[in-house]
User: Fold Pyrrolo-quinoline quinone repeat domain-containing protein from Halovivax asiaticus JCM 14624.
Amino acid sequence: MDRGPTPSRRTVLAGAGAILAAGCLDVQATPTPRDSDWRMYGRGAGRTRHVPDARLPRDGVEVAWDRQVSASNWLPPIVANGVAYCQNANGLFVIDPVTGDGPHVGTYGGFGRGGPMAFGSTKAYDDGVLVVPYGDTVGGYAVAPARWPDEVSGLGERRARWWTDGTETGARPVGGGSGEVAWGAAPVVSGDNVIGVNAFSNTAWAVDANDGSVRWQFDLRNAVENVSEPLGLVVDESTETVVVAVRDVADLLHVGIDVREGISKWTHEYDGDDPRPAERNALAASDGSVYAVARTDDGKAAQLLEFDAETGDTGWTCSFERHLHNGVAVDGETVYHLGTVDDSSSTDAFAAAAIGRDDGEVRWEERLDDAPGFDFGMTVQPPTIAGDCLLIPGGGGLHALDRTNGEHLWTFTELVDTAGGSETERVASTPAVVTDDQIVLGMTVGLYGLE
Assistant:
């Protein structure tokens, strides 16, 4: 049987709500973030995908553990408080990222299949909250790693502490949203806020991680008249700004919202030809700057755009030939762009570029002898910066480049049997999540810990 949290959800929420409303709870949120955490898609609220203190080998990695499954369709892993959560088509792994030990919880129905999860600290619960999107509806679940049942059915309602669509909050699913979420638009956690977007109402919103109560809701149509849909969001925590990418009919615009008050700061439009939205993973924020990727009208080039997170003022623009955009990652000095170029054959080839944050100039460009893989619809993952390495998931495995010059360091792959009796490389199907100098990676029909 699927066990719920103890004491009862209604009792805890009522008590926590009363304490929080009275302003009498001064304890530190628990569990507090660790340097080894990777709490949401993109690692942090700015989705920089940067692990500065990681120490990875330059001559290759070995398998520390692996968990094989009968079907892939991975969602990105998250790591919090020494526990990794990784969803695949058959269930949810709740495991130690160092040893790989822990249950593979069977999931039947829609639980966890809407998009990347996130993890938030709470004051009301000592285990935090697991944030799971379902289209325009988001669920906040009891984490309690040691108390996961063997199976979770339906939407896992008995583990849910709250549900919200950014307009209302309830103990049962609210709103009409269902289905998958664009990964770049998955909720982020910043402080004790869970922040997301609602594509049906074209709003951005923030709720309390403790009980899901709505703190603010912002109608994106107040900033952009012809919003077609929100495409993604990040939070620049240094300026306390939520940045939402929106499609204005066919054009790309960005909206800045105060993370505490939910009021408009700016709307960023582009001079000259209006750029087209990039396909995915096209937004990051760090230290007061926002980096967005757009496409030219002819679809042959990518544009990396910098602007100020506090004011929306335009900085530099860097353009380079790319057939497709795949993702960005940001460290203290450099923005790394991953895309594909047409190599005049039947497939595209990966191309990585390093662009200086101070001037928008290309520091280096390298092509890889690989292309994005196709793994049950999950294609094209963004890069990860880990110490001195730039990690690139591809169709032929996981590649590591020297982030200072683009030199190829190593490739990890394993072979899997095909239906025709031959073998092929396993696809790296998730971003490379780095925690405690170890990599957690979903590949074709297997979850791996690499060291």
User: Anything to note?
Assistant: The chain has one domain: 9-13+34-450. The two ends are 36 Å apart (CA to CA). The first strand starts at residue 50 and ends at 51. DSSP finds one helix and 40 strands in the chain.
